[in-house]
Design brief:
There is one protein chain. This protein is an alpha+beta fold and 179 residues long. The protein has one domain (2-178): Gcn5-related N-acetyltransferase (GNAT) (Aminopeptidase). It has 7 helices and 7 strands; from the N terminus they run E-H-H-H-E-E-H-H-E-H-E-H-E-E. The radius of gyration is 15 Å and the shape is globular. The mean pLDDT is 95.
């Protein structure tokens, strides 16, 4: 079952999203280490009006166990949703958050529990996100590292097409759009 995240989901959701974000958790949190990053991202999850808020997270749950989390938001609201993150970065004397998306619904990250991978859960979450975007007459977008061939193939199989290259923190990404 897919549902909106709740505040009490904070620990599992942030750990799942951190799996997907890799080194981005340091950039997004403006933290100096992973432990500090997880703490800061948890704080953002518990607050409203930011990209990592529980308001923008959906979870996939089976038998009352969260197996995956999806961070999804309207790219048209990205500047507003990143305001708190950028204030945090400025306070910590770190670089501002880079805007990854356009005006589409944007999949920021999808994290699937390692023991639940290969069961189609990410696909279900992506299709759920696509249906939400479609309801609002928006396209759905995401970025994927250029050399992440497995993820790229999944996205292509789901109808995403390459739109353009984007570079973040020294890494080259494919910006892909569906719809």
């Amino acid at each position: 079952m897919i549902r909106k995240a709740r505040k009490e989901d904070v620990k599992i959701v942030i750990s799942l999203l951190a799996l997907a974000m890799n080194e981005f958790i340091l950039n997004l949190s403006a933290a100096d280490n992973e432990s500090e990053a997880l703490e800061l991202l948890s704080d953002f999850f518990l607050k409203k009006n930011n990209r990592l808020s529980y308001e923008n997270i959906f979870v996939y749950e089976e038998e009352n166990q969260i197996l995956a989390a999806l961070c999804l938001y309207d790219g048209a609201k990205a500047d507003f949703l990143d305001k708190a993150l950028n204030e945090n970065a400025k306070k910590r004397k770190k670089a501002a958050i880079l805007k990854e998306c356009e005006n589409d619904y944007y999949i920021d990250s999808i994290g699937v529990c390692p023991s639940a991978r290969g069961k189609g859960i990410a696909t279900k979450l992506i299709l759920y996100a696509y249906n939400l975007a479609k309801k609002d007459n928006k396209k759905l977008s995401l970025i994927v590292e250029e050399n992440n061939h497995k993820a790229k193939k999944l996205y292509e199989n789901l109808g995403f097409v390459f739109n353009k290259y984007k570079e973040f923190h020294g890494h080259k990404y494919l910006y892909m759009v569906k719809g």
